[in-house]
Amino acid sequence: MKENIELRIWNFVEGTCSHDEKAAVQQHLDTDPEWQRIFLEVKEMQQLLAQEPELPSLRFTKNVMEEITRQQIAPAAQSYINKRIIWAIGIFLGTIIAATLAYGFGQMNWKDNSAPVKEFKPLAKLDNIDISNIFSDNLVNGFLLLNIILGLFFLDRFLANKRRKHQSGGF
Q1: Whether 42 contacts 5, CB under 8 Å
Q2: Radius of gyration of the chain (CA)
Q3: Per residue in 9-48, pLDDT tens?
Q4: Distance of CA 123 to the CA centre of its chain
Q5: For residue 167, how many C-alpha atoms fall within 13 Å in the half-sphere facing its CB?
Q6: Largest Cα–Cα distance of the chain, in whole Å?
Q7: Percentage of residues of the chain with pLDDT beyond 90
Q8: For residue 47, what is the enclosing H or E element?
Q9: Which end of the chain has less Cβ packing within 10 Å, N or C?
């Protein structure tokens, strides 16, 4: 019932009701204290809605940023990046590459007796490389499997961090 009264008063205040409805609402406002109370609330609400919102000061953004810098300063990159870990990762990867190359060169057949002595002989022919020897060893297959698993793990961590930054609104 109160919602119907509010709706009728809103229509009265906004001037969207008919002439007969306007007369009926005016009669209720003259005699009923409940209608008068709701009318005052609606008028007050209409005045609040008619006001222009306050605009922030011109330095609002600068003031906010200055306050943030006073509260928390991000540490320099030097303080949270451990150079020993970076060097250890670099040495580990370099060792893996060197070991793979040494194993691959060790599987090559460097002697070729088919060419005459006077003719130029390349150091190694690509025809003489037997790739099946390189990838048939169980140790190499295990090493490749381990690298694939580690690669998938790091890809998962990378995507999870990216998703977490995106959800938290970071850049």
Answers
A1: no
A2: 41
A3: 888 888 888 888 889 889 988 998 888 898 998 888 888 8
A4: 52
A5: 6
A6: 126
A7: 13
A8: helix 33-50
A9: C
